Amino acid sequence: MTKRSKLIAVAAGAVFLISAALSVWLLYPSERQMIEIVQDGSVLYSIDLAHTEDRSIRVNASDGGYNLVVIENGTVRIEDADCPDLTCVHMGALKSEHMPLVCLPHHLIVRFAEEDGA
Predict the structure, then answer these.
(1) Residue span of the structural domain in which 64 resides
(2) What pTM value is reported for the model?
């Protein structure tokens, strides 16, 4: 094995390890129970998942569109929307503090709320 191929193998291994560690960090489930539904930078709802019954919230967008946010069994997801690509619907349930649910066409973010004092 030449010096160049060893260097390439070490670099590829380092990239793999960094990617694996970053994936674990990004996808690590949150222990937080407070969520926020934010549109255009304004918090529309702050909800404690631990003390909320199952419910659906229709969030209307300024362009006349909508997102249907569903809280069920202590989880939250966007169940329906009328945006063109439905990426927000396909994201599934909110799990990580680092990966919120986002609907770009409707300027909507569903995320875990910051802890008090943070």
Answers:
(1) 34-112
(2) 0.75
